[in-house]
Design brief:
By secondary structure, the protein is an all-alpha fold. The protein has seven helices and no strands. The chain has helices spanning about 5-25, 30-50, 50-75, 90-115, 125-130, 135-145, 150-180.
């Protein structure tokens, strides 16, 4: 048996179990650390596909920067308390959640079964990427030529999220100071 197939099975299993742990954990910090495990397993899957640059970006950007920001926001807002138990949720909430889960499952299954029909490598073949100077240069050209507006929009959204988080934390601390 090929070692890459065994590694794929291991990384996939870790990703699925980690995703379940993100959902089932009682505290947001525990869920965030489970998400770190999922990001590491995705990095391993990217490495198995030969996308080493994406694997490194997955670790540096998502696991390093974004998850540190998530944990910082959770700690800053003081939200490290156990969440409500699903047993105490209303029947309407459970029904909507179940319906949403089956909807997402049907979309996933449709994507998996329609993916078998797709053939061809697309615009960026191995030869065209080699002509263009490699993976990194090809990704950079597409990102900074075709998707520069989207790239900058995401940076403004992240900045707005950070400012809003600090404003919420300051307001919470200010309100607590008034009551004492």
């Amino acid at each position: 048996m090929d070692w890459s197939f065994l590694a794929f099975i291991a990384f996939s299993t870790i990703a699925i179990l980690g995703s379940l742990m993100v959902i089932l954990q009682k505290t947001p910090v525990s869920s965030a650390f489970s998400l770190v495990l999922v990001f590491f397993s995705f990095s391993g899957l990217y490495a198995l596909l030969g996308a080493h640059f994406l694997a490194a970006l997955q670790i540096l950007v998502y696991t390093g920067a974004i998850m540190v920001l998530f944990v910082f926001v959770i700690m800053l807002l003081g939200q490290d308390e156990p969440t409500t138990d699903l047993k105490e949720s209303s029947l309407l909430f459970k029904g909507v959640a179940t319906l949403g889960a089956f909807g997402l499952l049907s979309i996933l299954l449709q994507a998996v079964f329609s993916a078998r029909e797709i053939t061809g490598a697309g615009v960026y073949t191995d030869e065209k990427i080699a002509e263009g100077g490699g993976n990194l240069r090809s990704i950079a050209e597409v990102l900074f030529k075709d998707y520069i507006f989207h790239f900058e929009l995401v940076s403004f959204l992240i900045l707005a999220a950070i400012v809003a988080t600090v404003a919420l934390a300051k307001r919470k601390n200010f309100n607590e100071g008034e009551s004492s």
